[in-house]
Amino acid sequence: MTPAQRPLFDPHDLVEVPRARRRDPSTSVEAAAGAKDLARAHAAIVLEALRRFAPASAEDLERRLGGALTALQVTRRIAELTRAGLVAVADEEGTTRSGRRCRRYRLATEATNR
């Protein structure tokens, strides 16, 4: 398999984040199990979007993805992907809808060399 054919993201690279607490009811534990798969799918979407559009802020990615993910969903996945070493801060030159400065992100070196 050539580097271009290798997947950009292995869902198992994500640092597992507890999505339910020990004392949560069983329904919450079940929902958390489903959320893990959804988070992995969202992470793959975010990585592909960063590959194509970086540097980009969470709001930039929300727009580029046509609203498929909200800026909040993107932000959560970026935090997880950063902990996994797959995403890094590119700069702080972005601007939010409200006019505030924000971080823009890019793929980390480890992710681009896969």
Blueprint of the fold:
Elements: H1 26-53, H2 58-64, H3 71-83, E1 87-95, E2 101-107, H4 109-112
Antiparallel strand pairs: 1-2
Helix pairs in contact: 1-3, 2-3
| SSE-based structural type | alpha+beta
Q: Number of helix segments?
A: 4
Helical amount among residues, as a percent range?
40-55%
Q: How much of the polypeptide forms β-strand, as a percent range?
A: 5-15%
What strand line-up does the widest sheet have? 1-2
Radius of gyration: 15 Å
* Biggest β-sheet description: 2 strands, antiparallel
Whole-number average pLDDT?
85
Which CATH architecture? Orthogonal Bundle
H-E order: HHHEEH
**CATH topology (fold) name:** Arc Repressor Mutant, subunit A
Measure the end-to-end span: 11 Å
Rough outline: elongated
Task: Give an overview in words.
With 114 residues, the protein is of the alpha+beta class. It has one domain: Arc Repressor Mutant, subunit A (Orthogonal Bundle). Helix content is 46%, strand content 14%. The protein contains 4 helices and 2 strands. The chain has a two-stranded antiparallel ribbon. The termini are close together.
Outline:
By secondary structure, the chain is of the alpha+beta class.
List the defining traits of the structure above:
14% strand; two-stranded antiparallel sheet; Arc Repressor Mutant, subunit A; 4 helices; elongated; alpha+beta; 46% helix; 114 residues
